[in-house]
Amino acid sequence: MRLIGTKNLFAGLLGASVIFALGGCGAEEKPEKVSQAAGAFSEENKLEAKEEKPEKEIFAVGEQVKLGDNILTVSKVAKSNGSEFDKPKAGHEFVIVTVEINNSGKKNISYNPLDFKMANSQGQIVDQAFTTVDSDTALQSGELAPGGKVSGTLSFEQPVGDKGLELHYTPDFWSDSTVKINLQ
Hints:
Blueprint: H1 2-25, E1 32-33, H2 43-52, E2 59-60, E3 64-67, E4 70-80, E5 92-103, E6 109-111, E7 116-119, E8 125-126, E9 142-144, E10 149-159, E11 166-169, E12 179-182
């Protein structure tokens, strides 16, 4: 009987330690705009500046946004009606977003086009479109060494002329933190 109790205790401790370890993986990080003179500020000045103004929830095209060791910049948004053989459905167009990801950390980071989604004014949040309109520039998946960067395009099918488009970037599977970029 004593042996069974010890096994249950061991199993309970093991389960608790696994839950505790996984709980640390999803630490909340907030995206923040990267200032142009980031290296010119001391840590104390950075903290003071952060306290003075609230963190942004939605960023703009051209802004560098840091989340963890990832720095994301959306540099261009283009629209396409497709090609002769690859067209969006009626009333829709392809929205092609050019992104750059930089690794500002000391360890390798992974990147993947599946880390991106697009929201529209109808409240729909969709994955990338299956299309060839950007096949020569499409973002692939891989890893970035410290200081490394990669750029590429992502294509989404959205209603023509939608003014409420946002690109959502969630680089860490274990986190709920998402960078949102207003594409207008």
